[in-house]
Specification:
This protein has 130 residues and is mainly alpha-helical. Helix content is 45%, strand content 11%. The strands form two sheets. Strands 1-3-2 form a three-stranded antiparallel β-sheet. A two-stranded antiparallel sheet has the order 4-5. The longest helix has 13 residues, at 113-125. The model has no long low-confidence stretch (mean pLDDT 89).
Length: 130
């Protein structure tokens, strides 16, 4: 089941290699990979690893700021830190979310980051009974 879920996520077309991002963002040839990897190390973006290759989420890159990580993504990653691994985060972004009115977080990240952050907080809070 896990293999099928990973295959579905990867085949969605929402994933880019480091080199693809570097070309899209117009980074110089001398150090194509440094920026995306720095973003990952600084927890501004996440990757999923498949067959030894890191894949970055295309939906998390904001073309209006030069294909840099979306402004709200670091906050979402902070909410999930220690609670979800990278694949768990990828599944969450790709899944329909009732807190977001049946939309996927990845579809709202660029335009409505505050709603996506709130949905992430709701996800980790879980059901609260009173």
């Amino acid at each position: 089941m896990v293999a099928k879920a990973r295959k579905t996520v990867l085949e969605s077309g929402d994933w880019l290699t480091t080199a693809q991002i570097a070309r899209m963002a117009g980074f110089g040839d001398s150090n194509l990979r440094s920026h995306p990897n720095k973003w990952k190390n600084d927890e501004q973006i996440f990757t999923v690893r498949h067959r030894g290759v890191d894949y970055f989420p295309r939906y998390a890159l904001d073309g209006s700021i030069g294909c840099r990580p979306a402004k709200g993504l670091a906050s979402v990653l902070s909410v999930f830190h220690g609670r979800k691994d990278d694949w768990g985060i990828a599944y969450w972004f790709a899944s329909v979310n009732s807190f977001l009115g049946g939309k996927r977080p990845q579809d709202l990240l660029l335009d409505q980051p505050d709603r996506v952050i709130a949905a992430a907080e709701d996800e980790v809070t879980g059901v609260v009974h009173g």
